[in-house]
Amino acid sequence: MKDHYDLLILNNCPAFYKINLYNEIAKHRKIFVVFIGYYDQVVIDKDFQENIKFPYKMLNEKQLNQRNILESFFALRKIVKAFSFEKIIYGGYVDPEFILNSFLTPQKKNILQCESAGETKLSGPRFYIKKIVLSRYSQALASGKMHEIVLRKMGFREKVIVTKGVGLADKPVRETFVERHNEFKFLYVGRIIELKNLRNLIAVFNENGLPLTIAGNGTLETELKAISKNNITWLGFVDNKDLDAIYKKHHVFILPSFSEPWGLVVEEALYRNCALVLSDRIGSLNELLLDPETGVSFDPENRQDLQQAIDQVVKNFSVYSKNAADFNFVEKDEHQISAYSTEIFKK
């Protein structure tokens, strides 16, 4: 007789925040997790194996773009055939291995995990192919309201559960809120690439002279450093364990991305009581800024709109930072865990 699991969870790589989430789900359900490989654009702890508290399999001990997709697919199929599963959660509708498996598994078992909030084309061949792929899922786990809207626009009519997250961030002991009255310090944490819209960010801070710290590395680092004025501090790559102290030294977290599926760094900053200034294309915008009123959003294409958002968050900082401190992370995390461990099993 085959070993039976409540959940088979398929994801592309063992990001620390996914491992944290799966560890919590494993306390409530018998799960087996499959990771395709590694991805250099996602934070993966070197000792991640030591933190895993559930059975899992790495299909490839290499970067995702170096794998043999056909070999990877057959390795996945071997696992699917070796065990029985009540439900299968697919981490997106992009990886070929997952798409192929969804057509070889009963639709009632298949659940889509949707973390993409950037679908804009609602016509053309790619759109209709995605609609066909979506027809293979009986439910969807949408990270936020923005993701649910995308699914509905693409014609998904099945049950959608909003999870309010993409995983669980590491959370040290949260400090008691203390109102800050000293000079406002702004912080950006992330990759230094075109998608993050740092050219506009730097242009605005070059003009307003406010203190901005940039933590991260990437292909545009040298170029953007060269055009930055003295009020902008560059930290380069910062290890995840060292970010806590950096967040706590700043008042406002700013994320100007042209597109962001969720923005785990937003959660990390909010947890440290930072007020937020976010592009209106951030996947977590509703859940982490608009609903709890923790900051101001702006159009990432418009520098004047960004400056107005900065002015507004400075003017009303005491309100936004207090709302950030009052944000209930325990309730949010419990909601996310329940979505995976309870809600998807309801008829």
Element string (H = helix, E = strand): EHEHEHEHEHEHEEHEHEHEHEHEHHH
Mean pLDDT across all residues, rounded? 93
Broad CATH class of the largest domain: Alpha Beta
CATH architecture of the largest domain: 3-Layer(aba) Sandwich
Do you know the CATH topology of the largest domain?
Rossmann fold
Structural class: alpha/beta
The main β sheet shows up as:
7 strands, parallel
- How many helices in DSSP terms? 14
Total beta strands:
13
The coarse silhouette is globular
Number of domains: 2
Tell me the helix content.
25-40%
How much of the residues is beta strand, in percent?
15-25%
Strand order across the biggest sheet?
Answer: 3-2-1-4-5-6-7
Distance between the termini: 27 Å
* Cα-based radius of gyration, to the nearest Å: 21 Å
Could you state the CATH homologous superfamily of the largest domain? Glycogen Phosphorylase B
- Contiguous uncertain segments of 5+ residues: none
GO molecular function: glycosyltransferase activity
Organism: Kaistella flava
InterPro entries: Glyco_trans_1, Glycosyltransferase_grp1
Domain Glycosyl transferase family: 177-316
